[in-house]
Amino acid sequence: MITPSPTSKIDPTIARGTLGSVVAASATKPAYITFLVPNTSYEMHLLPTGEIKAQVGKRLLGTIRAQARRIDVVQTGGQYVEPVMGRPRRVQGTVIAIAGDSVVVDAGVAIHCRPTDVRQQAGQFSVGQFVSFDVLDGSTFTAQ
Predict the structure, then answer these.
(1) Which pTM was predicted?
(2) Under 8 Å CB-to-CB from 110, ≥6 apart: which residues?
(3) Which one has a higher pLDDT value, 144 or 34?
(4) Average pLDDT of the chain?
(5) Which of 28, 49, 51, 40 is CA-nearest to residue 82?
(6) Apex CA 140: angle with CA 133 and CA 121, to 5°?
(7) pLDDT digits 0-9 by tens, 3-20
(8) Which of the ends of the chain has fewer CB neighbours closer than 10 A, N or C?
């Protein structure tokens, strides 16, 4: 349960969290934000696709997009994003929607993942399936 509990309905495909920090670009890394997921230890490093108007420590709503190497349907395990701190590298969770060419997975936070394996299409998956996949570098966040 998110604490404090939301008082208004939010689309389940929208990621909700807190802005942990905004990190400027360096010589070797692009600028990124730290997205904190409520009631977890997750500190996801995501590339912003536009201006982030929220202040550090304040609520942040938007869409997390990732590219999956290959999406596999699995039978056991839990919902997670790995590693806990850093850019997402592995995700496992339940399919909650199909949005265009992406599969929306609930892994503690909603993540829109686009399969990059040419043998897979988002339409091949269905709501309720439990899936697992590796994430390519460059996961993004688009604020609402």
Answers:
(1) 0.90
(2) 12, 13, 14, 15, 63, 64, 96, 104
(3) 34
(4) 93
(5) 40
(6) 45
(7) 666 666 778 999 999 999
(8) N
